Structure formats: C-alpha cells, structure tokens
Amino acid sequence: MENLRKIIHIDMDAFYASVEQLDNPELRGKPVAVGGSSQRGVVSAASYEARKFGVRSAMSSVMAKRNCPDLIFVKSNFKRYQEVSGQIREIFHQYTDLVEPLSLDEAYLDVTENKKGNPSATLIAKEIRNKIKEKTGLNASAGISINKFIAKVASDINKPNGQKTVPPEEVIEFLEDLDIRKFYGVGKVTAEKMYRLGIFSGKDLKEKSEEYLTKNFGKSGGYFYHVVRGIHHSEVKPHRIRKSLGAERTFNENISSEIFMLERLENIAEEIERRLKKSDVAGKTVTLKIKYSDFTLQTRSKTIGYFIASKELILEIAKDLLYQEKMKNSVRLLGITLSNLNTDKNEDKEEKKEISVQLKFKF
User: Fold this and answer.
1) Any binding-site annotation on 348?
2) Which residues form the UmuC domain (predicted)?
C-alpha cells in the first residue's frame, strides 16, 4: 500500500492589497486596487472589498473604476511585499524544509514528516495560519490533502481566512462534486470548451476516457484524466526550477510609432538582463507580448540554437518579432519573456497508477 503524503497549500488572502491596508489604516474596509491608476494601467491585486464589485487582477484600471467608482488605487511596493513574504516563509520553515514557494503569497509545504512531530497536517496548517496572523497581522487560507493539486484546489474553498482538509477517504467524492472551473489548470477558455462537451463537474470529467480527453485537450487531457482520480505525484520541490523570466510595461498613452516602441523594448530588455544576471540564467526562446488599445493580445516567439542573456541579443530578436507583421492598432502594453532556460530539466514522468487509499492516514 502506497505511503501517502501530507501536503499543505498556504495562500495569503488578497496579499498585496492586505499589506497596503495593514500599513495604511485609512485603507482598511475600503475597496483598494494595487497597481494601475484611475486613468491607465492594469490592476495587480484587489482587496476583498473591491472584489465584491467585480474588480479582479489583470483587469484594466478603467474597467475596474467603472465597476467600483469608489475604488482607491495605490502604487505597488514590491520591496515591502518581499519583506512580509520573507517573514511568512520563516514560519513555514519552523515546520518543514520541504517548502516550495509559488510566488510571494503562496507555497506548498510537505509535512508528512515535520519538525514538530505533529501527525496532523490539519492542526499544523491552523498553527501556521495563527502564527502568520500574530507575526504579520495578515490572514491566510490553507488547503490540506494527499497531493499538491488537491491541496491547492482545497485552499480556495473556505477563503478568506479559512482552511479545508480533504482526507484520503474523501478525495474521490470531493473531486467528483467539484465544479470544473475550480480545477487548477482549467482556465476560462478550457472551461468553455468543456461546457460545450458536456463536462460541468469532476464527475462528468471522470466519465471521459483518457483517449477522448487527449484528443480534445492535447497533452492537458492526460493531466485532467489523472488529477480527477486523485493522481498527482509531483513532489514539493524546495528549489523550484524557474521556467521563464520576463518584464512588461503598460504605457500612460497608447503608442503607434515603432520608434517609441523600440525605446520601450530597449528598457524592458535592460530590465530582463538585470534579472537574468541576478538569477544567473540564460534562455533560447524570446517571446514578444503586444496588447493593443482595443485590449486584444498577441504574442510572437522565436527560438534560437544557443543561450542568450544580454540586452543586445534579446532586443535584436524582439525587434525582429516586432517587425514580423504590421501593427493592427496602437499599442498600450509591450512585454518580453525569455524561456527555454538553461535551468530547465525534464520533470520526472508521473506514473499512471491509481492511489491506494490509506483510511488510517491521519489528517
């Protein structure tokens, strides 16, 4: 019988906005958007008060303000967010060194064997959330289960400031009852396609064969086939491998001149070069991201046969991509991403086998 793991996914509640409300008492209880402005830009994060009005991250500031006229915009302060994130990670490491950060505000923890000798992952998650509150004044939510996929999905169930445990004996029922939109990895476009195919819940998904899902969703089909059965063998990796590195800029005014675009791209390439040197990585694939004034998004990519990390080479390829075809409208955002990095390694192939459920496995 397979030894199951005890995985916790910790997700801070509206992290950036909550830090701003913590540091500025006048913002507490009010709708806050981090990033952008009342005129331009894109929302990076929104407080729960703002979310009630439909304000979401990646939404244009204009639309956010339209949804919530009383919305307060504040500038991003990543240095401060990193500081608080560091305090939170120190708490994680009091329990286990198997911590895999996904971003500043969320991480996986493997507490199968932990420094406290506590057999209950549920109690550990509660302790961690309480310590985060005591140390930072911020709320966190948690999901607890047998693998990373289920833990991440579960952490969203009782948000904000709550937690959800899915023990082994409840995994299949939990996944079958789950709305397909709640599955991690199912975005808006995929969800709409699944709806057209009559897939609305985990139970509907489970009824489809692996061949059927692969035919309709490509490589992701195999992933969907296994996770809906509770199969996800990805381990918590303390040193998570970076897959890409990039930067983008939203402009105060739409630009249509290619000369101005090149100036912006040069600044972006310079920023990427700085980050590459800091991380000591290089890549082979350059992707140019263009968002037009009508909010349509376009990406163009080029892969070369050797690793690059210099601003000059990145910019040269970005220029080629920019001139690849004529601009169809004025531009409000440009971005460059370098991927296919020299840190990439082939992930261990997940075994395709059912999980033997241990009912005595205490959560």
Assistant:
1) no
2) 7-187
105 marked as part of a ligand binding site: yes
Catalogue the E-assigned strands of the chain.
Answer: 7-12, 32-34, 45-46, 72-74, 99-103, 106-110, 140-145, 163-165, 244-255, 283-292, 297-308, 331-341
Residue ranges matching CATH 3.30.70.270 in the chain: 1-166
- How is 293-304 classified by DSSP, letter by letter? TT--EEEEEEEE
Fold of 180-227: DNA polymerase; domain 1 (1.10.150)
Pairing of strands 99-103, 72-74: unpaired
Start-end ranges of CATH 3.30.1490.100 in the chain? 244-341
- CATH top-level class of 1-166: alpha beta
| Predicted TM-score of the model (pTM) | 0.73
pLDDT computed for residue 40 by the predictor: 67
Q: Show which residues are catalytic.
A: 106
> Torsion angle, CA of 198/201/204/209, rounded to 10 degrees?
100
Tokens standing for 22?
Answer: 């913590």
Q: Which fold has domain 244-341?
A: Dna Ligase; domain 1 (3.30.1490)
Q: Looking at residue 342, what is its pLDDT?
A: 87
